[in-house]
Amino acid sequence: MIQEYVTLLAQVLNLVPEDDSDLISILCDICNSYENTASKDELYTYTTFEISQRFNNIEPTELNFVYDDTSKWEKLLSHQSSELSYIIALHIVLCLIENSIVNKQSFAKHPAMKSFVKARLRGNEMDPLLNATFGELYCHVFAIQANAEDIRFVYENTYPYDWNIVENIASQITDQSMQTHLLFENCYLTFANLKIPNSFTLQVTLELLNTTSNRVITLGKNTYLEIRDTHICISNDEFITALFDGFEFEIGVIYSMILCFDAGSVTLFVDHVFIQTIPLVSDSIEDLSTVELGSMLSFFAVFKFTILDYCITPNQMASKSTICAFGYHKGVILDIDIDEIIMESDKNMKVFTLTDISDSFPTGKCSYYQTSDIVGLLLNMNVMETFLHRLIVEKDSSSIRIMTSHIIKYLKNSAMDNHFQSIQGNLVLNYILTLKAEIGNIIDIKVVEDLTELFTLMNTNTIIEENFIAESPLKILLNFRLIPLVDVAVFEQLFIGLSSIFNKHSSRNVNSISEGITILQRTILFQLHSSFDTNDLNVIISDCAKSLKNLLDILLYCNIRNDGTIVHLQFSYFCLKKGHITLAKVLLESLDSVFTQYQIDDRDFLCKSIPINLYVKVIFILMQSSIQHLEILKVAYSILLKLFDKQPGFFAQFTNSNGYKILLSILSTHSISEAELLTTILNVSASKGTVKRDLFYKNILSPPDDGISLFSHSVVINLLDSFIKRNPFAIQEFLLTFIEYLKKMHQRNPNHILFTSPYPIIQSIFGLQMNLEMLAVEKLLPTVNVCNKSLLADIIVQKMKTYDPESFKTLLSYIVSYSENSKRPKSSQICQKMGLVFLIVPRILKRLSALSFTVEKDHSKLVFVENILHLVSISSASWKVHDASWEALINTNLVILKARELISKSDFESSFQTDILRNLNSVQEEIYNWIVANGIRKDSNIEHDMIEQLLHAMLYYQEVLFIERHKETTLSNEVLANILTFIRRVILMSEPHVQFLGLNVFRTICTLRDASLPSISKTCTNESSKCFEFLAKSVKSDDDTLLQALRDATSNVLFSKSVKRLQTLYKMDGIRMDGHRRVSRSQLTHILFKERTDEYDRSIIDSNSIYALFKKDNVNLTKKMVLIEERRLNDYLADDRYQKEAGYACALRVIRKVASTAYLRDFKSTREWYLAARENVKRQRIQLLPVFEPIDFLPSLKLKLQDIHKHRAALPHSDTASTIISTQDLNVDVESEGSDQFALDKNRAVLQLLRKDERILNIWNASHIIGLLAKPGVLVLTTSSLYFISGCYYDSNEKKVLDLDALPEILRDLTIDSLSADLITKSIEADAEIESLRYGWKVKTLNRTIKRPFLLRDTAMELFFGLKNTIMFSFKDQSIRDDVFSTLKKYAKDDKHDSIWSSILEEVNFKSNVLSSKNGISRTSISDKVSAAFTSITKYHASEKILDLWQAGSLSNFDYLMALNTLAGRTFNDLTQYPVFPWVIADYVSDSIDLENPKTYRDLSKPMGAQSEKRMMNFIERFQALKDLDDTSTPPFHYGTHYSSAMIVSSYLVRLQPFADTYKTLQGDQWGPPDRLFNSVSRAWTSASSEASTDVRELIPEFYYLPDFLTNKNSYNFGTTQNGKEVTDVALPPWAKNDPKIFIEINRQALESRYVSEHLNEWIDLVFGFKQRGKEAIKAVNVFNSLSYSGNVDINGIDNDIERKAITGIIHNFGQTPLQIFQHPHPPRKCKAYLEVEDEDVRKFGDLKPSINRTADKQSCICLPSISHRDIKLKNGGVKHAHSSKITVLSNFDQSLIATGDSIGLIKLWRTSKDGLTFLRCFCGHESSIKSIRASLQCDTIISLDTHGTTIVWDLKNGTVINKFSIMAKLVAISPTTGSVSIAGEKGISIFDLNGSIYCLHETAEEISAIAFMDRDVFWPYKYHEKLDTVLVATGNKITVYDFKLVQQKWKLLPQQSISNHQVKSIVDIKVEINNNGSEAGKLKKGTSLITVDKDGRNWSWE
């Protein structure tokens, strides 16, 4: 059965089967053949394969859809089925869409398809797979036809999001293949008249659809860039000139290809990677003025094509700084805009081809694929901000992770990323995720992978700089608190990802990024250290050790010679001290690893700022601190060895210095595992470079043959000496292993450095033997003792065989002088020699005696014999002790015999042989003499086996002993006599076999030396003849006979002489002690051991003293290292807090922006209105700015407020990075760092403010005065900006910024401290205006600086920026203020033509010193007095110019009063000195008001307290009563309250912020009783004028210009009065008709009335003049509390804290009288009222005639710059792709400011200059094409209109929404001077005030075609005019001038003049400008210009 939807599918598809099969059958088969469980991707793969196999017409440019009957599509797409076959049917549609750009565009552009798909997505819940399929279909439509409604559908209307759609859109904006492109198929596009030089760069981004033969570009006439067999080549008509065979191209892959042509060669880069440089066969390209993209043999898609007039170098390519896509550059010859090509070309919309290109060739076709401006829409609709807000609100962990991942994906688009950075998105995201982490919602491994990928993609070649972290995803990646501790795999992935990122950087920027790398190193370490406790950190490091170390290695490798080594050494020590052992270990391992790599690379790794000795010192400190942590000791020791290896000279010096002793002292303190430590030392020295060494013996590696190995072995043996003393058993096993290891090492390589000169190891082994011998006495370590002796014997024997005699002597001399101290006492060295003789030589001789001395003609044998002679000669003492070792003597004898035999049988030269034999004989004679002398003693302990060996040797070597071949080479007669005597003595008591040997020797001697028997006999006895006879007979006697003869007593006499001689020898020639007692071996050994012990004790004392000195010397260094790192860590944590605060502030801005977007979308949101701190030219603050709040504000953010001090938030561009830049830490003198207690250094708070090109010029301590708040901090002047940071203090002596809380009282401004704490610290952060201004101001915008009083002290100043923004600062004293004033005054650039206020402010400064002095608030210096003497001041102390203007009526009463307030020190910035204005109207009860009636007005000659007679008398009585008290401390006064105070001001303005908060602060954080609120003008007047005894208040300026303060716009709940009436808006007098605007206007008219003009001077006398003080004030009943007058109290002179705080509080809260300006009566006004003269501009309007404007005046609205599609063009350049969509509007606001709007509703603001255009900000909120943009620069306001009729008012300064008008508009205009708005709608013209309140609707039947306000000159605002504005309205070709004014208490537009001309067709634009060209005699020349544009675009000038 064929399903219905399959039939429908067949009806809407145009598919050609491969065979003749039926289409429906094939489709049915495809839809029903899939049986597996399906996923979306699997279905797509299946469907794609089936379609490609079964149909023919599946091509990229094929149209496979049929739209003849839309209902079939509707049925197909709305079919209610969830069957898999239906889903497959939809997937067939999907596959066809994705396969063909024609299918995709035709489907998307069909008007019904989007609605069909969206209907399904909006409908009932679908199967997930089906829903995903429809989501895919919608995304394809979205890609082509997205609009604002679609953005709302995806991102605003539903939540949770359809994540598949969200992710698909992310792919659309990041996948190059989904971007707009052209597909060339055998066609080309020509670009002619190009000026291409010989050296140029060609860049093309394309996708090849054929790699066999594909000609892509033609340069000039016959040079081709083409693909041949997967390789790119350059060819001409004859041959290939260059073939790039180093890269193969593939079909379907998008490549960014760059070719650089330069000097006869061409270089190829693919995807920014260098491929090849090839010389061109032909040197030039013919006719380079023409380039063709594509050809008749082409098949490819192109996305970008650019030509530059210079050649890019590989270095430029590496930095990706080649081609800027944003802006016209001089180097760009061609940069095609594919969107523009598509729009301007003729198109076949059915198959989406460019017909003017495609139709040129029969086989050619140029298809296009054009996407909607998705990125522009996303930005304009604030999607990234919405994401962030959703993330804030979201509580589900899974959703948080998903949303974070999707945010990251969107950031892969560069435009999205740039926008994200502009809103400090990384900072905000990090802050939000940190909040989420605190409640358990943390990121997973997927987020880490996405962040890593994003960072790699966006910053592959970015050089790491200071702000690197803040401006990238590193902000989040390096926030380790976001990662769950239980999931160590996330950390592993993070470290791996970071390593991959920085590895790419390090390969390019090893030497240029050290500062940034240092920041990264420290950030990672600080994060690890501060984010986890020790146990958690240990887990992370142990599980991620390899990846973390690799990351640290990469960073260190780039920075090792700068600050990297400092970081690792210093912070590792810090970690050791803080218990983070594992982190210290990884740091040191990384340092060791990188040192190794540098060694391998043969590069210097030593830090240039650290001397080598400091390196070693720090490493010693590290070893000292980690002495019980073997793994750290190991790494530190390895690093030390690498330093030695790198500095051989220093190494040699070190080994002979105290450094070696210190090292041993440190290591010897290790007590946990001595054996492991010693093994480690050996193995560390064996591990060098990349050479892997095998285990040589047990767990000891094979040692290298170098000095480092020698050093380590010496260290080990020296340590063994210490450890043996401490606990011999602990190292017994190691000793055996070590000795055996050395023995095997010696056997393998006896010439290894360990065993060669200068023999330190042999020396050390011998010294070790001394210790072992001492232990042997106690029977300890006997096995070790034997092994070590054997080792020494082996070594010495080997040297005897190979060394020449001198070398061998040197060896022995080194051994016996064992010590590193060459000045060792001689007695000590003698003991050492005895140790060798008695302890080692016997072992050597035994070893030698076992050797076979072969006879060869070899000189080495002779050397061997000579060495034997030397050894025996120095060991003669061994047989001269009374208990000599018989074994040693016998072995010595045997060795000499073997040597004699060897020499005797050799073929050496005769004389040489004789000399050797003589020497041997001499030694042997001495040996025999001592043997027999010892043997004949009665107490001799000679053993029989020894006698046997001795006799046996004599027999065996009888030939060399007894036969004289050379003279004096055999034993002498005396020695033979002695031997015979010995035999006779010992034979008698020996066993038979010994007797037998003795008798044979006896006979042998007599036989072989028969000729010498007479001489022998004489030597034996005095009876020589008898002896001779006896000896001669013995030769023939048998054994028994001879034995019996020898036993015969008579034989005694025959040997008596020999016996006596031998006894004498033994007695006299032996070694003696104390000159008489013969020494024994044990005695000498005891002496040796004592000397050894004493030597050891001396060395220990010496080492301990050196080590103690080392530790003492390093106290400061160690303290400093910890202190520096603690400070850095504290700084980092402080910065982290600052970043959180900044993150909070930025998040708040994002939330408010989203809330403002919700307001524009008519969603729920709230607005709180603030009175902006900006002023207009009249010094009026008239603009309200909203702060938007969403309804669903996140509670956790509010909870965070307790930890956030918002007044300390950093600027958006600040970063932690700038605060942790390393210096030469280890070289800083710690004394300068202070003690353990130090104030938190807040220099970083200042540094964070600075931009890259700024440097600090001055820092001052100041208090920022904002309303009632005084915020202490520092004022920082840089080369371009002025910053204020609250909560800080600058210590000029220490040159650093400190935390104010830690500041000692002596440094504080005590006057500021005297204020309430709430008034010092309370923030008004929410004020959007202040939030944008509070931290930084551009110095170049500073117009004026004026001195101001504060708290009746002359210590403050105001700064005027652009005469709109004023900032007030107070200083500790006048001298500091004057210094700041003088400095900043140099930067002020006053434009005297801006307004009349320039003259007023100049007057303030001109007279400030005089006024301050006369008012007693400043001391007048001599220079001031001299200046005052020459200052021309009128008797009224007022500017003659201003006074004249006022008197003449050219200056309104309002402006004159504002001028006087300013002169008197009054300012909007200080609520305690707020400008004061008079009540002028006294009638607040009548229904109508007559301003000509004097009774309407108050009595201006009297203060408010004297307005009623009764109350005046009460005040006079009070004055008299106080006077009668005669209390000098309390002068009498009339009024206990003041007419102007902070409470009065804030009560008037309580319905607006920030005054609402101020009022609540003064009321104890509550509104107070509702009845006491300002809720009625009439009631307030009655109270102030007659009723209340404590109320004498005057008014504030707002009563004359700001109607909004009378309305409860913020809907505050003030409560209800006692009579039950709710307090909301202020009740107005009846004559105001309940309209605040009417009230304000009538009040203003009254102020400017005849009566007030005549009497205003009288009120001036009371407030500013001669009646303010003294007798005249008493007469006028105008005396206030004395503390309200300047000069009556010196706060600084009050020492008592309580009194000072009390008086300061009174001054601050009670009110302050203005400075007295006039000492004499003020002159009256000459002009008694304002003069409503004829408006000259309007009068001349009717005479204007039009003419065509052919010059396009530069100031007109239709002049340059101009727009071209998405570009802005200027004569000197412009901006390429200024918008991502077509620009529809360009508006010139003035000579330097323009705005552009585009087709999707995005508005951009630009600044123009001689250098071109600079982008300032975006205005996002419209949902359709921008139709009009107008501005009032005076009010910093923009108004915009889109094609849907939506009108939005914007804040020009920060791009935020102010208001949206509800009426549908056709035209809009805004007044340049007042900010009033006119909207032309269906019913007529609506007029609104600046703050959106409607004045009136002027209905008109005519179609309005244009509307505008009249611009006015700079003097216009200062005169009073009844009309508020003049409006120009065009209807067709007629322009009518309307006056807008209040008429009979109604607002009306009154027509005045009209002009028209038949030449001008329908007018669509009007602009009136006043051009001020200069000044003359104080007057400004002006010229009025009227320019109109008709519907044909022609410009008309009316003159």
UniProtKB/TrEMBL annotation:
Keyword Ubl conjugation: no
Pfam hit, one: PH_BEACH
WD repeat positions: 1819-1860
Superkingdom of this protein's organism: Eukaryota
Keyword set includes Repeat: yes
Keyword vocabulary terms for this entry: Repeat, WD repeat
Domain BEACH: 1431-1725
InterPro entries: BEACH_dom (IPR000409), BEACH_dom_sf (IPR036372), BEACH_Domain (IPR050865), PH-BEACH_dom (IPR023362), PH-like_dom_sf (IPR011993), WD40/YVTN_repeat-like_dom_sf (IPR015943), WD40_repeat_dom_sf (IPR036322), WD40_rpt (IPR001680)
Positions of the BEACH-type PH domain: 1251-1385
Described function: May be involved in protein sorting and cell wall formation.
Protein name, entry field: Beige protein homolog 1
Species: Kluyveromyces lactis (strain ATCC 8585 / CBS 2359 / DSM 70799 / NBRC 1267 / NRRL Y-1140 / WM37)
